[in-house]
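Consider what follows.

. . .
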Amino acid sequence: MTTRLNKIENKTLELLTSSDAAVSVVVVFFGFLIATLILLIIGRNPAGMYQAMLQVVSGFDLRRGTWNARYIGEWLVISMPLILCGLSMGFSARAGLFNIGAEGQYIAGLTAAQIIAVFYSNFIFAVLGAIIAGSLWGGIAGILKARYRVSEVVTTIMMNYIALFIHRIITLGIPGSNTFRTPEFSAAASLSSSTLASITNNSRLNNGIWFVIAAIIIYWLIMEKSTLGFSLRAAGFNREAALYSGMHVKTNITIAMAISGAFAGLAGAVVSLGVFTHGRVLSAFEGYGFDGIAVALGGNCTALGTAIMGLLFGMLKSAQPLMQSRQIPREIVSIIMGLVVIFIALRPGIYMFVEWRSRTKIKKEDK
């Protein structure tokens, strides 16, 4: 009986593990279902929410019967930093680390990109500088974790605030800056694209999209197809087993956090150089790093899943103004995103429930 029960448990766990994508689809469905019920309870028409989302992803306005590609471009613009910050969180999570510092790493990258753009007027150097700055900022937390066993959760949370205040000090020190902005960037330092803008009816869609696509491919290649990725995943599954097999776990922790920070730093460059024509002096967090946590969890920390979830959350955020025009509270977007994270967090409970049901069924059959 024990052998048979163990086989059933293993089969159940194997099925659940192989169906992570299906679980994500289910939790997103339930998130929208509950949001729909909430709208019905407060007396609003849920059709307005879905019409707004359709308009964002297709450009079609069902109310007026018109089409505008600008909505599609703006959807992609908002999705880009969400995808990159999701990759940041997801990369560290696959290595068994919980990086809550993507927001700080994003700010580090944004700061470096703006400084280089102002003084050197070259977008290639600016993007590389942002990647390096984000990598260094994430690497610091990795070193503290690897060498001194300092919790990366605590470290990255605190480093978010440090990054914000250092950003303000440095950016305000740029000649010609005020409390809101820096001098204008030159055209050579911008990621803007007249071609992409014209295709999407003068949206803000820019060349940053190519960096995002490259980041998704690089994430997949490293994590799924490289020796480094195997080592990182092994340490994430079981650190002691990885140590026993001779893997350099401490080095891998630092590398994982550094690469994780690089993705978030790139997000800072994509936003600062692609969306704006001048540098900004941030007064508060912009939230991309925190939203990236939800994106990564919803996408199961895989390259494709994170990209899809980033597009989904970007769609929701882009649809907020359109929802308001249809008498739908914009807060419904935050509710949906929160519900998705909650349901994803409940996944271990689902596993336990299925295991329990399997045990109960076997016991009844053996009686």
